[in-house]
Specification:
Residues 45-64 bind DNA. Residues 1-23 are annotated as: Disordered. GO terms for molecular function: DNA binding. The chain has 211 residues and is mainly alpha-helical. The chain has a domain at 68-208: Tetracycline Repressor, domain 2, CATH 1.10.357. The protein has 9 helices and no strands. It has helices spanning 16-38, 46-53, 60-63, 67-90, 97-114, 122-128, 136-161, 171-192, 196-208. The chain starts with 15 loop residues before the first helix and ends with a helix. 24% of the residues are buried.
Length: 211
C-alpha cells in the first residue's frame, strides 16, 4: 500500500487563523501598554485589557500563559518602542548633541500634552508599584533604565568631546541623574496635569551642564 506524499506547504502568508491570533495578541499588547501609561498594572484586571480590544472574556490565556507573562511582554514592547524613540533623537547627526536631548524632551512633552498629561512612562509607572509586582520584574525594569542611561550617556559624551559641557563631566552619572529626575518630573506632570514639572527639570538639567 502506497502512502501519498504530503505536499510541501506553499510559501507566503501563514494560515488566516494563525494570522488572526498574532493580530489579537499584538492588539492586547498595544492595549496593555496604553493602559499602563495611565494606571497601575497590579490594580488592572485582565478583563479590562480584554474589553479594550473586544476579546471575549476568558480568552486571555489563549494568548498568554499568565498575567505575569503578559506584563513581561508589555515591558519588552515598551522598552523597544522607547529605545527607537531615543535613537531617533539622540543619534541625529545633523544636530548638536545637547540639542538632540532638548529635542527629545520637547517631543516627550508634546506627547504628554497630546494626552492631557494623563499618560506617563510604563517603566516608571511599574517601578513605582514594584512592591505589588512579581520580583522578576525588578531586574527587567532596572535593565531598561540602564539601557536608556547608556544611550543618553553616549550623546552626553559627544557633547563633552566637542566642548559643550565641562571636560571633566561624567557622562554616565549625568545620564543617571537625567533619568532619575525625568521620571520624577513625568510623575509630577501627571499629578498636576501640567507641563511645568517637565519644563523645570529640563531647565535645571541644562543649566547644570552650563548650557
Amino acid at each position: 500500500m502506497e502512502l501519498d506524499t504530503p505536499k510541501p506547504r506553499r510559501r507566503g502568508r501563514p494560515p488566516k487563523q494563525a494570522d488572526g491570533q498574532r493580530n489579537t495578541r499584538a492588539a492586547l499588547v498595544r492595549a496593555g501598554v496604553e493602559l499602563l501609561t495611565e494606571k497601575g498594572f497590579a490594580a488592572t484586571g485582565i478583563d479590562e485589557f480584554l474589553r479594550r480590544v473586544g476579546v471575549p472574556k476568558g480568552s486571555f490565556y489563549h494568548y498568554f500563559s499568565s498575567k505575569e507573562a503578559f506584563g513581561t511582554e508589555l515591558i519588552e514592547n515598551y522598552a523597544n518602542y522607547f529605545a527607537r524613540k531615543l535613537d531617533r533623537w539622540l543619534l541625529d547627526e545633523s544636530t548638536p548633541p545637547l540639542q538632540r536631548i532638548a529635542n527629545f524632551v520637547a517631543d516627550a512633552r508634546a506627547g504628554m500634552e497630546r494626552h492631557g498629561y494623563r499618560r506617563g512612562c510604563v517603566i516608571g509607572n511599574l517601578g513605582q508599584e514594584m512592591g505589588a509586582l512579581p520580583d522578576a520584574y525588578r531586574e527587567h525594569l532596572a535593565d531598561v533604565f540602564t539601557d536608556w542611561e547608556t544611550r543618553l550617556a553616549r550623546c552626553l559624551e559627544l557633547a563633552r568631546q566637542e566642548g559643550s559641557i565641562a571636560p571633566d563631566s561624567d557622562s554616565r552619572t549625568l545620564a543617571r541623574f537625567f533619568w532619575i529626575g525625568w521620571e520624577g518630573a513625568v510623575l509630577r506632570a501627571k499629578l498636576e496635569l501640567s507641563p511645568t514639572p517637565l519644563d523645570l527639570f529640563a531647565q535645571g538639567f541644562f543649566l547644570g551642564l552650563g548650557r
